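Here is one chain, start to finish.
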Amino acid sequence: MGTKLAREPSGDWSTRTRNCRAVAQCFARIYCGVLLVLASDLSQGWAADSPAEEYHVKGAFLLNFAKFVEWPAQAFKTPADPMSICVFGANPFTPALDAAARQIVVDGRSLMLQEIQEPQQARQCQIVFISVAERKRVRALLEAIKGYSVLTVGESEGFIAGGGVIEFRVEESKVRIDISETAAKHAGLRISAKLLSLAQANKK
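Its structure:
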């Protein structure tokens, strides 16, 4: 079984509260901005001026992918099951991502974030993010989920060439995406025209 995303270490309560509020507000702004990018014809990517900002942006994309990808009914055990977004291995995100996910409902399903450590655990997920720190285990994960409708999202170079569905890349301090329609079809996933057009625009 997966585990919930880790919380921040203990410390001064008022300081942690202010920090969490600031991060949550920042994440909410980025989430809405990414949603606008995905829902429009914009093709400029989303600025990420620091490593922390980069993962806020990538996290916002992960949550938004749930709205722009269609899974087959058999990908869920019951109509009431939440949509599971998993982070495989090393987790670069802050607790703000978990907090934001809890506020989102997609097609009647809540979003649930969890950490997983073993490739086979990815079978229970609808979306799996694999950080660059886990690039050596990408092949093992992709082999483990063959035949399962899992949207794989990575950030290591060559991720989609190796069989992944969506690859993040950063160019000129902007987060962009590439998509493998072939890998998506093999996984039984239907990606919206908006998301595909954004990926195509980024190649221009």
